[in-house]
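Anyone up for a design puzzle?
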């Protein structure tokens, strides 16, 4: 906590000096504009939101790491809003195809330069032109389409796993974008204002995006296992079970969009009964792939309940 004394300026004004560390952190200088937000018991000062007062930042990553480690490091750099990502090292040449694929999967990232020992990628995304809530809806819509194609796979035996897997990739890249935007807003308070979201809402949207992405992963795997099922099984019963579980997800999202706490509570109240239905189905259908499918459905049920619970937790006084 820092205290400053008010200094008289002119006949009717009072001024206060700003901490030098805060000025340096935001790269401010004489003549820059400061935003002032006046609340009942406080005044909030923020630098004017502009790309001009945001310091470029870059990070260098060694290409000598394992490809899975490289993936995690590149994603972390993207989420933490580094403007420039440089990948360099002796082993870059043998991994360049995978690295290019990772970078091209990130919204707004472009490769500016590539040699046998270095790749330079830059972030061209203007975060002021995107909406976290709109991206959540896009992720939801893609996941719903995955559910519908998986229903067709179960009912008619049509191999939709490639189409479903491709859309799961789209879900992943948009979810990572949500993480990036939430981090940006948490780092710069004025970004939260542009998104028209409180810090609590940002936190919940982060977790909602994460849970939808998890649900999409389960759907992708269910579609895969249904495609390779060899033993005969009760398609109608399996399809009905999948629809019951999918409805949990659809209802949880309805509760989220409408902020209807009663609907969210309905999702939570059905969780245990659906778990029992899944276990009963397993008893009557003993097959290794059926077991894997039902496990993924149970996971879907759990993640849907997390989404429903976030509606209740975000406004406990109304629940």
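Challenge accepted. My sequence:
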């Amino acid at each position: 906590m820092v205290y400053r004394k008010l200094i008289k300026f002119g006949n009717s004004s009072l001024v206060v000096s700003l901490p030098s560390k805060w000025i340096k952190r935001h790269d401010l200088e004489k003549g820059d504009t400061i935003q002032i937000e006046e609340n009942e018991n406080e005044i909030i000062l923020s630098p004017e939101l502009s790309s001009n007062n945001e310091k470029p930042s870059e990070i260098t990553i060694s290409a000598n790491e394992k490809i899975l480690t490289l993936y995690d490091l590149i994603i972390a750099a993207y989420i933490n809003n580094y403007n420039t990502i440089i990948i360099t090292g002796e082993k870059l040449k043998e991994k360049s195809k995978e690295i290019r694929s990772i970078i091209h999967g990130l919204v707004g990232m472009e490769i500016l330069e590539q040699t046998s020992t270095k790749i330079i990628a830059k972030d061209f995304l203007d975060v002021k032109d995107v909406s976290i809530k709109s991206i959540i809806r896009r992720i939801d819509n893609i996941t719903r389409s995955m559910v519908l194609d998986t229903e067709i796979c179960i009912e008619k035996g049509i191999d939709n796993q490639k189409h479903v897997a491709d859309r799961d990739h789209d879900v992943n890249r948009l979810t990572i974008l949500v993480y990036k935007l939430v981090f940006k807003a948490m780092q710069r308070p004025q970004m939260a204002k542009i998104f028209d979201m409180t810090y609590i809402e940002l936190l919940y949207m982060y977790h909602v995006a994460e849970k939808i992405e998890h649900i999409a992963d389960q759907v992708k795997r269910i579609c895969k296992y249904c495609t390779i099922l060899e033993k005969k099984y009760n398609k109608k019963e399996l399809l009905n079970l999948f629809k019951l579980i999918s409805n949990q997800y659809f209802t949880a999202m309805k509760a989220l969009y409408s902020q209807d706490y009663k609907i969210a509570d309905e999702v939570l109240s059905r969780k245990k009964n659906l778990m029992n239905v899944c276990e009963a189905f397993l008893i009557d259908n003993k097959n290794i792939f059926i077991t894997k499918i039902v496990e993924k459905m149970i996971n879907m049920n759990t993640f849907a309940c997390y989404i429903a619970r976030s509606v209740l937790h975000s406004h406990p006084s109304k629940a």
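A detail worth pointing out: Residues 159 and 184 are 40 Å apart (CA to CA).
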